[in-house]
Amino acid sequence: MRVVLGITGGIAAYKAAEVARSLMERGVAVQAVMTAGAQEFVRPLTFAALTGRKVITDMFGSGGADETLASSVEHIRVAQENDLLLVAPATADVLAKFAHGLADDFLSTLYLAFTGPVAIAPAMNTNMWRHPATQANLEILRKRGHVIVDPGDGLLACGTSGPGRLAEPEAIVAVVDQMLHPRRDLEGETILITAGPTQEPLDPVRYVSNRSSGKMGFSLAEAAAARGAQVVLVSGPVHLEDPVGVSVERVRTAREMYDAVMAHLPESTIIVKSAAVADYYRADLPKQKVKKTATLLSLELQPTPDILAEAGRRKGDRLLVGFAAETENLLEEARRKMTTKNCDMVVANLVSQAGIGFETDENEVTLVLRSGEAIPLKRASKRHIADQIFDQIAKLRLAAHASR
Ligand code: CTP
User: What does the pLDDT look like over 94-125, one tens digit per residue?
Assistant: First the structure.
């Protein structure tokens, strides 16, 4: 397999060296292409040494250095010879060029000539990332079928904190690896996934809910669909777009989620309940807005139906995966939920740590199996964690088929 690694000008350019090294270790031949901006941060020699190939640094070879390999049709040859184009780090500028078809240097020209799969790992300042222009360009690239390896949250080189930090090299390589060797190990499975919070109304204008963003469940749905499964995603209120190739049903309350899950349960072979379902709801819902008074207000709340526990009762030979969102006694609680809700696996999620769990792009979980085994997964993007969860699910499925 051959990959073009496009490196553009950002402080994270040095991390592309780790990406190149890791791809080479996996037996992937890497052709590095550096923009002029990238060369301000890292010398081409670094990539030449790592990849064992000359680095392409410009369109017409005007650099004239030994490290430069260029001719007027070089971009066509490179486009034809490679299986995948990866850009890491990708600046806001290169996203804009790709989105609008500008071709004023080797990388942007190669992009237009390239017909294979494209993966893009952006890195930039948080405000630049959030800018509507950048988001609109990302949208165009996603719609074109390119895979965007979302940046992580954290302290950026510019001193601010927020989304924009290049995804970890390991996560980028995992995405590329999957694109080069698409796994179809979930073909034939019908997977029901729940995501997000639920909202329980208190009156016509207020509700109780929780901090779940739905990102973990949406990543699970995306990963399962990419691996060939039919996926039904039942989601509470979240601000996320439907994943490609997934049938999405949006609900609001725990009761609505319960009804949707029970309706889809019969045809499902695997159920993954990542939703953070509200545990209580207000049964005596007032028709009018509750008015403020000077006295204390107490509300009587009733327990919501436990969807996972009911799925556990009706499970048959389906594979049932629950989540345990905890702030303490993580494994103990996960094991308790596994037994009380009749799960085959529980994804134990510590939600009290900054940077992982609720509202973030990254997660760090432990997979607890019925055998008692606990498999810790290192902190990574939710998309990467989703794939590792399905790696384990695929193994459990194989074992279940073998014992039948
Ligand atoms: N769950 C569910 N229905 C509920 C509550 C939870 O299906 N009414 C599911 C969640 O989707 C998750 C698992 O149960 O897969 C565990 O949820 P969690 O909130 O961690 O636990 P609870 O059962 O609510 O227990 P506790 O509040 O004691 O932690």
Answer: 999 999 999 999 999 999 999 999 999 999 99
CB 88 within 8 A of CB 166: yes
Same domain as 113, residue 50: yes
Candidate of 194, 251, 253, 279 to mutate for ligand 1, largest count of ligand atoms within 8 Å of Cβ: 279
Helix (H) or strand (E) holding 382: helix 382-402
Query: Catalytic: 343?
Result: no
164 and 244 in a common domain: no
pLDDT digits (tens, 9 = 90+) for 329-362: 999 999 999 999 999 999 999 888 877 777 788 8
Torsion of CA 187, 193, 196, 198, to 10 degrees: 160
- In the three-class reduction of DSSP (H, G, I as helix; E, B as strand; rest coil), residue 58 is classed as coil
Is residue 11 domain-shared with residue 119, that is, in the same domain? yes
φ and ψ of 72, to 5 deg: -65, -20
Q: How far is the CA of 322 from the centre of ligand 1 (A)?
A: 8
Q: What is the CA radius of gyration of the chain?
A: 24
CB atoms within 10 A of CB 302: 10
Q: Is 334 in the pocket of ligand 1 (CB under 6 A)?
A: no
Asked if residue 185 belongs to a domain, the reply is no
Decide whether any atom of ligand 1 lies within 6 Å of the 122 Cβ.
no
**Ligand 1 binding pocket includes 310 (Cβ within 6 Å):** no
Q: Can you tell me which atom of ligand 1 is nearest the CA of 303? A: 8
What does the block give as tokens for 289?
A: 């807005």
| Domain stops at, among 128, 158, 180 | 180
Tokens of 265: 């349960």
